[in-house]
Each structure stands twice: as C-alpha cells, then as structure tokens.
Design brief:
about 200 residues; Rossmann fold; 7-stranded parallel β-sheet; 8 helices; about 40% helix; globular
Length: about 200
C-alpha cells in the first residue's frame, strides 16, 4: 500500500488535484500501453474542499471515499488516521491511499504518524499544493505553516499559475526552492488538468 498526502492551505486546489490524480490512476490499459494503474484506491478526506468529490463516478472507477471531518487537527487527526489505516482501509486492500488533511495540517507529523502505524506501507509521499495567486497573502498570514508544508513536500504543485504573471511565478519558484531545494516543482492549472508526467513522478 502506498500513501500520498496532499498538503496545502484551504483553497489551494488540493481536492481538484486529487480528482485529476484519480482520473490518471483509473485510466487502465493493456500491458505496456497502460498509462495508469487501474487499481483501487481509497481517498481520505479530512475537510470540505473547494470542489466536491463525485463519489458515484469515483466508485465506478474503483475508488472509495472516506470522509473523516475530524474537527480539531491537533487532537483527533493522528488518531483518526491511525484508525483508518489499521482498521478500515485494509478491507478495501487498495494499492493507493490518497489523504487530504485540513489546510492547517503539518504534513511531516502526518507522515511520521503513518510510518509508525504498524501498517505495511511501501512508501509515503507528500504533495504540497501551493496557491500561486495567494502566495504572499497566505505567507503573511501563516508563514510557519506555509514553510512547514513546502518543507515536507516531495513534490510541490504551484497551482493557479493562470491567475499569476510570469514575474510573480518566478519569485514564488525561487522562494519555494529556498525552503525545499530537493522537491520537484511543477507549475499547473489544476482545474484545466494536470499533465500525466507529473503524476508519473508522484506515483512511481
């Protein structure tokens, strides 16, 4: 089982990015022509996102949605995630667990919780979705949270680049690289769709 944590402040585009990943993973093919995996995945949702999950569509593609809506992030998230990983998710036997925590979650703590859960995980990866259109405003409001979310990322999706000019994007790229030079960084417009090569990097 592989765990992908989608981090990012509320409204950054986590949910729509996850939907794009779900479509990618559900594109089953034959043999070497397969673009995706066609394997069942479970999506854990811990907040109401800016885009609703179409549960009927996703279930037809082999997905299950589990809504945690835990409330107090510091008190309940770790316990809820452990419960899901240990007790409920094994029923589905998914290849992927895709977890969308709240926008104020610290992904490093979530990753450590998952690794210490006793559940056999092939790997745990963190994708942080950064809102290019509100980067400065969010950074001013919650600087430590933004740095922690970017710093814990294996991959950073710089979203909403269609709403931002080239000069601002270049400045954000420089800032992100300063926080986490080892992360892969992609400029995306998640609502228009995320290129397959981005998800190839994330899922393999």
């Amino acid at each position: 089982m592989k765990l992908i944590i989608f981090s990012g402040f509320l409204g950054a585009g986590k949910t729509v990015s996850i939907l794009s990943l779900a479509r990618y993973l559900s594109e089953a093919g034959d043999g070497e022509t397969s673009k995706g995996y066609g394997s069942k995945a479970v999506i854990l949702e811990n907040e109401v996102g800016d885009v609703n999950y179409d549960q009927s569509m996703l279930r037809k593609s082999g997905y299950e949605i589990i809504n945690m809506l835990a409330g107090c992030i510091c008190c309940t998230l770790s316990n809820d995630l452990l419960t899901q990983l240990r007790e409920f998710i094994p029923w589905y036997n998914p290849e992927y667990v895709i977890f969308e925590p709240t926008g104020v979650a610290y992904p490093e703590a979530i990753s450590e919780t998952a690794k210490e859960s006793g559940v056999e995980l092939e790997w745990v990866r963190t994708v942080t979705v950064v809102d290019a259109a509100r980067y400065e405003a969010i950074g001013d409001m919650v600087p430590h949270l933004m740095e922690a979310q970017i710093g814990a990322a294996d991959t950073v999706l710089l979203n909403k680049v269609d709403l931002t000019d080239a000069k601002e994007i270049a400045a954000i790229r420089e800032a992100v690289a300063g926080i986490n030079p080892g992360a892969a960084l992609y400029e995306v417009n998640a609502k228009a769709g995320i290129p397959d090569e981005v998800f190839e990097r994330i899922t393999r």
